[in-house]
Amino acid sequence: MATTAGGNKGGKGEKRQKTIVFLHPDLGIGGAERLVVDAAVGLQKRGCKVVIFTSHCDPGHCFDEARDGTLDVRVRGNTLIPPSILGRFSILCAILRQLHLILSITIFSSELSDISPTGFFVDQLSAGLPLLSLLRPQTPIFFYCHFPDLLLVQNRNSSLFKRLYRIPFDALERWSMGFATSTAVNSGFTKSIVAKTWPSYPAEKLKIVYPCINTSLPAQKEETEPIKWGQSERSIILSINRFERKKNIALAIQAFALLAEETRAKSKLVIAGGYDQRVHENVSYHADLVQLCEKLGLKSATVKTVVSALNSSIENVDVLFLLSVPNALKEILLKSAKLLAYTPKDEHFGIVPLEAMLRGVPVLATDSGGPLETVVEGRTGWLRPGEPGQWKEVMERVVEKMGEDELREMGEQGKRRVRDNFAETEMAKQLEEIFEEMEGAESKAAALLGLGLVVFAVVMGVLGVGVGMWLVRTPVERL
């Protein structure tokens, strides 16, 4: 029998219950958040106590497990620093919010001490690891690197100021990752990118822990009725992604527009995904996609509720945009889809193809990044370059040429692949083994503390002065 969290070890042969504290910037809706939620639920099922601290979690814009009591989610460190300043300085604000969160649960309250964690799970942002290591030197830290942040924000058209502004943050990212007791990435592709980005980072420290999905679908999900619009039955080509330009959703629209008119009449492109009104890119990219539909002669509609999505008045729409769909509607869409169009190029991993394959939906994805490790060409889907003409050919094949038996067989192979390789039990097992390996590891804070504090103080001081001068010199209308 395991002891309670923070308690003493039991008798001989007994195993102390692990208490894992997660630190995540914004527990919204996205691939990183899905991984965090699945990892937390998986560890919880293996007998660990789990607490998630985050700087933001909107009950109306998060996964069910984060709001229905399945997980202990606590919002801290969100009272002083906004997510951005006049739409800028997002990375600086994210770092300061993470530091505020850590200080809120360690210095300004006894919350973390009361929990008595046996390990930390930190992802996305490594800047707070030195402080966390200093304040909790006996608690090992596991850092999950979804992708190097410096590559996520690279833009050749960025101003000289922005490129200079990023230099200290990029250096801080690499340096602060060194404070993790153990580090993992989400795919072999990401591991290769990390090795190229930071050649000096010890490769032996990088483990690969694939994201997973819950393969034990409840009976009600298996029995979900397909969606129907009006009297016609149109083949649904489905895209699920956040409304961000890097997700390249335009590719699916461009390919769909190339279909013959009679083929389009038999199908509908449904674009569902994470949409947050607070995020300027979500709003602007959705507007751009609507304009693209108009330019290509496609009739589109945007809906935000389940009732609106099922309304027969949108039966004849070519492209349907669904903003931030709840899990129930996503299940209906996946049950109804004939093909999943997964458009991002060089995606770090990509959880949506797994969700589709588990439900028997073939996947069309770009031939790069994570999908190369999940989608099997010709067996569970297709891998194609990001060229609309080639995507159009696959869409046409699925809608016009493939019989139900052929599609069903491909769907069954997809289900088997996910259950054999990407089940949530496997990820939870890997994570628990990593936390066991880290037990007793000495903190790096003592050896690096002096240098670390000096470097950190200098970097933040320079950034503070630079930001202040820029704000003073830059007219508000240019911000």
UniProtKB/TrEMBL annotation:
<keyword id="KW-0472">Membrane</keyword>
<comment type="function">
    <text>Mannosylates Man(2)GlcNAc(2)-dolichol diphosphate and Man(1)GlcNAc(2)-dolichol diphosphate to form Man(3)GlcNAc(2)-dolichol diphosphate.</text>
</comment>
<comment type="pathway">
    <text>Protein modification; protein glycosylation.</text>
</comment>
<feature type="domain" description="Glycosyltransferase subfamily 4-like N-terminal">
    <location>
        <begin position="29"/>
        <end position="216"/>
    </location>
</feature>
<protein>
    <recommendedName>
        <fullName>Alpha-1,3/1,6-mannosyltransferase ALG2</fullName>
        <ecNumber>2.4.1.132</ecNumber>
        <ecNumber>2.4.1.257</ecNumber>
    </recommendedName>
</protein>
<keyword id="KW-1133">Transmembrane helix</keyword>
<feature type="domain" description="Glycosyl transferase family 1">
    <location>
        <begin position="231"/>
        <end position="416"/>
    </location>
</feature>
<keyword id="KW-0812">Transmembrane</keyword>
<keyword id="KW-0256">Endoplasmic reticulum</keyword>
<dbReference type="GO" id="GO:0102704">
    <property type="term" value="F:GDP-Man:Man(2)GlcNAc(2)-PP-Dol alpha-1,6-mannosyltransferase activity"/>
</dbReference>
<dbReference type="GO" id="GO:0004378">
    <property type="term" value="F:GDP-Man:Man(1)GlcNAc(2)-PP-Dol alpha-1,3-mannosyltransferase activity"/>
</dbReference>
<dbReference type="InterPro" id="IPR027054">
    <property type="entry name" value="ALG2"/>
</dbReference>
<keyword id="KW-0328">Glycosyltransferase</keyword>
<comment type="similarity">
    <text>Belongs to the glycosyltransferase group 1 family.</text>
</comment>
<dbReference type="InterPro" id="IPR001296">
    <property type="entry name" value="Glyco_trans_1"/>
</dbReference>
<dbReference type="GO" id="GO:0005789">
    <property type="term" value="C:endoplasmic reticulum membrane"/>
</dbReference>
<dbReference type="Pfam" id="PF13439">
    <property type="entry name" value="Glyco_transf_4"/>
</dbReference>
<dbReference type="InterPro" id="IPR028098">
    <property type="entry name" value="Glyco_trans_4-like_N"/>
</dbReference>
<keyword id="KW-0808">Transferase</keyword>
<feature type="transmembrane region" description="Helical">
    <location>
        <begin position="445"/>
        <end position="472"/>
    </location>
</feature>
<dbReference type="Pfam" id="PF00534">
    <property type="entry name" value="Glycos_transf_1"/>
</dbReference>
